[in-house]
Amino acid sequence: MTPGILLRTGATALVLAVGATALHAGDIAEYMDFFEPLPALPPIPAGNSLTAEKIELGKMLFFEPRISGSGVISCATCHNPALGWSDRIPTAVGHDGQVGNRNTPTVLNSGFLESQFWDGREPDLEGQALGPIQAEIEMNMELGAAIRRLKEFDIYHEHFAVAFPGEDDPIRAENIAFAIASFERTLNTPNSPFDRFLRGDEGAMTSQQVDGMKLFVDAGCVACHNGPALTDSNFHRFQLPGSTDEGRFVVTGDDADMFAFRTPTLRNVAVTYPYFNNGSVDRLQDAVQLMGQQMLGQDFSDDELDSLVAFMHALTGEMPAVTIPALP
Amino acid sequence: MTPGILLRTGATALVLAVGATALHAGDIAEYMDFFEPLPALPPIPAGNSLTAEKIELGKMLFFEPRISGSGVISCATCHNPALGWSDRIPTAVGHDGQVGNRNTPTVLNSGFLESQFWDGREPDLEGQALGPIQAEIEMNMELGAAIRRLKEFDIYHEHFAVAFPGEDDPIRAENIAFAIASFERTLNTPNSPFDRFLRGDEGAMTSQQVDGMKLFVDAGCVACHNGPALTDSNFHRFQLPGSTDEGRFVVTGDDADMFAFRTPTLRNVAVTYPYFNNGSVDRLQDAVQLMGQQMLGQDFSDDELDSLVAFMHALTGEMPAVTIPALP
């Protein structure tokens, strides 16, 4: 266990003394200080104001399979609302059944992340949105072709015009990204038992879940899993057994980034299995044990594992109520 | 124009005199007698009573991609709720991107059809439901594997048990079909302008749509497109330019069935393009013209086409309000 942990909360970095001597069983408030309830919305970037028109258009585009080469794959294929806005298979299956090498991250609360993709190669959702459309093993459509496809429909002309008023030719790549990112920023899961507990509803978590929360702090999990989405959005080296993925190194070429992946959010972790960059671990308790061993040098006991897993179940929030759009 | 048309309405066959001499512009009521508003529910088969439990389970199975070989294709992939419960591409794209040779029929109102598939090879939705799961170019999963997959989830054990009470081993193929068919029987689109017009709301259709309705009767379209779903569920020979599909002949081996296809429903036809067995016709007016030429030996004028197409737009009903299920 690390006695001093660098904890980043928003823009503030602070060193907190963590340990059995610093915190006692009754000091729930001090444990709770490590966390914050999920806000209703993530930060909205200055360059892409959040409007109802963009959200509505973004929803249409998110569910639009005709901006894929096959005509049947949309963002919602892998980020499936029925499956925690992910796919619950080890690694993504895309165009012509091609299998990728990374697990699909959930879109839920992704607006709270400070970098996108497992390797953080895009800084924000706007940067992320256009990647899978073009990726040959995912949706496999060139942006020019996607734009031409959208322009075939009057209703897209109308929706882009109202979402991006004053533009002569609003159906363009940047606006597709703006709209999809805007929709995604609404896909948050507030009011989990954990959030309600943090807001003062002591009965919202079971005593086992509270024990898990304490252990989560005491053991040091919170060093990386902090902030509203329980991720520092930073990169940590971690060699998953069987994985040859070089992770962040692919982006930076920096040896220090070899096998480093962005800390995933733990929000809704119980419903976004399987786990890790290659989705090779199905069970949450196995994922927690592996993390304890690799990141903390610690073998959790069965009781500890049960508490941590119970706590993670308390991180499942209210799923966004998204109605299926009627596409043209 | 055929002066005497064999009109099947339910179980009753009757010969009606149709023509300019029999019906006049003012005789709206007589035209309306050819039609019936869409009932709230289709006929429920004696062997598969409709229950809330089966509907809920069926919805889960309909959206469940893990009963496909790839893990990402569900019934909802091709029967996409965002796309009129069809796919709006010429022919279906399934496992590993394989392209089928027939257009995906909409699920909407399919409980009103007296046979399923373009070639009618299954009599009912129960018979239809298991086909695409197993088809190698669609979902590509053996039923045994699908059942094993479902059995991995506690929640499916629970849902099958309450949907099929008293069974020792309810997660079985027949019950999968029963549940999916039950869900599908709820996917109906009542209260179209046409339905409201038939119920007495004279302002529900425009005068052009009313003209289209009359022409639809006078020209003889109603001979095959009748009944609540505007289909006789029968098979008619029709060689679509460019199509080599032998249609119903594949099922019966009867020469009379060569190139015969089941009359498709015209309910929601404006939102279930492209048209015909190979989805080769994009525009509704072109589809109507082609039908006039092939089935009625008639070239519609531009005005007539406009009226008929306007009428068909009046057949778009209220889409079922289906929330996306939370899958395990």
UniProtKB/TrEMBL annotation, chains A, B:
Protein name: Cytochrome c peroxidase
InterPro entries per record: Cyt_c-like_dom, Cyt_c-like_dom_sf, Cytochrome_c_Peroxidase/MauG, Di-haem_cyt_c_peroxidsae, MauG/Cytc_peroxidase
Keywords assigned by UniProt, alphabetized: Heme, Iron, Metal-binding, Oxidoreductase, Periplasm, Peroxidase, Signal
Position of the signal peptide: 1-25
Organism: Roseinatronobacter alkalisoli
Keyword hit for RNA-binding: no
An example molecular function term from Gene Ontology annotations: peroxidase activity
Domain of life: Bacteria
UniProt domain Cytochrome c: residue ranges: 53-184, 207-316
Family annotation (Pfam families): CCP_MauG, Cytochrom_C
PANTHER family per the UniProt record, alphabetical: CYTOCHROME C PEROXIDASE-RELATED
Localization, UniProt: Periplasm
